[in-house]
Amino acid sequence: MTSAPLRVLVWNENVHETSGDPVVLGHYPDGIHGAIADALRAHLGDDAVVTTATLRDPEHGLSDAVLAATDVLLWWGHIAHDQVSDEVVARVHARVLGGMGILVLHSGHYSKIFRRLMGTTCSLKWRNDGERELVWTVAPAHPIAQGVPQPIVIPQQEMYGEHFDIPEPDESIFISAFDGGEVFRSGVTYTRGNGRVFYFSPGDQEFPVYHHPDIQRVLANGVRWAAPRGDVGPEPTADYHARAWFEAAGGSTPAG
Amino acid sequence: MTSAPLRVLVWNENVHETSGDPVVLGHYPDGIHGAIADALRAHLGDDAVVTTATLRDPEHGLSDAVLAATDVLLWWGHIAHDQVSDEVVARVHARVLGGMGILVLHSGHYSKIFRRLMGTTCSLKWRNDGERELVWTVAPAHPIAQGVPQPIVIPQQEMYGEHFDIPEPDESIFISAFDGGEVFRSGVTYTRGNGRVFYFSPGDQEFPVYHHPDIQRVLANGVRWAAPRGDVGPEPTADYHARAWFEAAGGSTPAG
Amino acid sequence: MTSAPLRVLVWNENVHETSGDPVVLGHYPDGIHGAIADALRAHLGDDAVVTTATLRDPEHGLSDAVLAATDVLLWWGHIAHDQVSDEVVARVHARVLGGMGILVLHSGHYSKIFRRLMGTTCSLKWRNDGERELVWTVAPAHPIAQGVPQPIVIPQQEMYGEHFDIPEPDESIFISAFDGGEVFRSGVTYTRGNGRVFYFSPGDQEFPVYHHPDIQRVLANGVRWAAPRGDVGPEPTADYHARAWFEAAGGSTPAG
Amino acid sequence: MTSAPLRVLVWNENVHETSGDPVVLGHYPDGIHGAIADALRAHLGDDAVVTTATLRDPEHGLSDAVLAATDVLLWWGHIAHDQVSDEVVARVHARVLGGMGILVLHSGHYSKIFRRLMGTTCSLKWRNDGERELVWTVAPAHPIAQGVPQPIVIPQQEMYGEHFDIPEPDESIFISAFDGGEVFRSGVTYTRGNGRVFYFSPGDQEFPVYHHPDIQRVLANGVRWAAPRGDVGPEPTADYHARAWFEAAGGSTPAG
Q1: Distance of alpha carbon D61 from alpha carbon D57, whole angstroms
Q2: How many CB pairs under 8 A join B and C?
Q3: pTM score > 0.90 for this model?
């Protein structure tokens, strides 16, 4: 990792906000992306440069040039998943495989990009009664859990429950409980290609979850964890290798 | 797997029962081991021969001869873990590494054998207020979850909560929620050597959990899953292999 | 698992064979699918009914009706991946998520269905010099490794080498070495939705690998392992659950 | 992680060296521990303070005070595993569970501490013919693989081959091939309690492997990866938690 600041991009479909929903705007006058970006700036300081993009921007704000200048992408979407163009999804996918980190948030579980990275439906059970969510750490040594209380208490949240149709996670960091009795694997990690993926479910447009200091800390920890370990490159390719190629002058190729 | 019946041994420290605890004896007049053995016989029928052994038996009922005739061992212990001899623990450990399956139940999380198999403290958080436990399946395609309702409802149970200090499981099958809000990874699997390990937490001496039909089904499924895939042998050894040993007359050795 | 025979379908693009390639036809006069189907019939006997389908069949031989009658699908493709229709791929994908097992073979690593299930490029390094491949078992207790020698010796094979761009496997069963010095994770498993996925790399159209008795055994073991544990259903869906739904009359729903 | 330098301790049984073995002393005049410590100092610079300890030191150089001042321990042993006292092993084990990182090297696979952390025999196949070892990266995005060529070429090494009797790794980073055709999972990671464990097999007393610049880089990367994420504490304990304990004044406890 170089000492240059991490280039972090917070993407939000920004539909609830621009539809004038008073509850959402009450919590997030600058949009969910604005709240998250502010939180990351506060936590990461000079270690990161944080920008935002939304669905209505040209190319959804995710042009080749923008992605080429992004180390970690955060993704929030809910009611407009199908308005995200397949071309942009393919572009984001390739960038993740090349090494860009991605944090998929809450209802982003049903986004095209997350389903494509997972290979499953990513479906779940849900209910929106404003229940208390308790977020329990099951991997206390993991960098994403550093400085996080046991449990995180979120007074009001949408319920997300099992079964959550995801692949067996590489690492399970958080498991949530809801007042109604359901549980949910709320913080899980994967590697896809050279890119790191962190899904974190707390955060709904109807509740001020992204103003919760512990949730903000998890997001900041997640960004640091998902940061590329080396340069982000093109996605991996199938290559012909002649016998003993690695003995040739100039030797072997960089692995990581 | 041969068509011979599985040889299943249910081990119980049997201390609460023989101490005359009226609550425990009310639930388990034949001991916890008796109740579990009856349940397995009912579920597995002619596919298994189920016997029992307890702490006070000679060699804790776990002599070399007994272990050599055991395919799957179930382990229940609570207040007498330190009375189990290290020699017997080493013997059970070697048999698991050689291929015997083992189901570790409830307070067995703190048994010498489980801690030795895991390499961690296996500590957890606990409270005994007779709370409702909901056991949620997170791996619905797993053989151990077949025929199990979502969720299993246990009206009264001891609370076991995270953080549970175990290695990241090979497979996470069940996660439990308790009325007080805690969660617990209540059904997890591991492989150690050639042996399969299933830890399942529901089941306490003060509540009739082992009479619950869904819990009984999980135990029966667990026994089938943990059954050795081939003959159980000695634990693996470090061997010298001459160059090209696998090309010698008689060829290579069996892997599985 | 019911006692009804497993319904196994071997799919092959069947392009090398129908193009009249004499080397391929020399090894596989009935097509690669024919050789594999014969091998599975020999190993599985009355436990399975084995049929075949190819790219040129209507709907590639993978109509809704055919898939609805398939428990385990084997997939071999090489030079015609892009001729497989996206609609059929989506159909197979949904069936896997619903519980159908799938074995992806050799150059099928680059098939649309495997890449969709994995979420990565599935690219690798390769060379076709007819080198010896040694297939080493690293999970001897796994059902897929039962009866398999250590190592399997394949006199001539195409080299497939790391890095293989796949997600961290749920289970790594086999690792191969080639005479040129490369290694490859040649047998790996995943679960996706309710379906089990086994990728196994040995097997090329230019060499008689599918006539190798040990390779045939692995395929047969793989089919048994990938068999659905319960009924195959639709892919999982996102559902609304009212508070305390599981306490309602009729109780909870089947998990597995 | 604080900005204070990492406290790294390289432990070596130091028996080959002090027995006057001319081959070993030729490669390692300051002992294997001396060579490794020098390499770590060169790579880590001001980020670490590197010290050494050996078997013949009082308490093997692993007193409570020394361990309390150690963030990451490296362990090399071969012919004197049984001379390491059980008391010291228990102490190191507890410190790892409390958060100290540990790198177990080469023949340390058979050390008491590694077997205790793994719960398996950690046995393997071996041969010492001075064969070429190729170390292939299978997790190029992992921090331990950064800056490492694909493959690392070690001209002469002892062969370590599968089956290696370890638990399924949390992460598989490197797989080695030997000229004789064997493969070995040569770089694997685990978490035990709050501590991170990295086993790395290249490195034998008869060959100058620890002078190989790529091997040195892996060790330095491994030390950084294994560094504790927070303060190292006592090993986790089982605690009683009253209902709603997390709502009490002062709130919940730190998770990570």
Answers
A1: 5
A2: 103
A3: yes
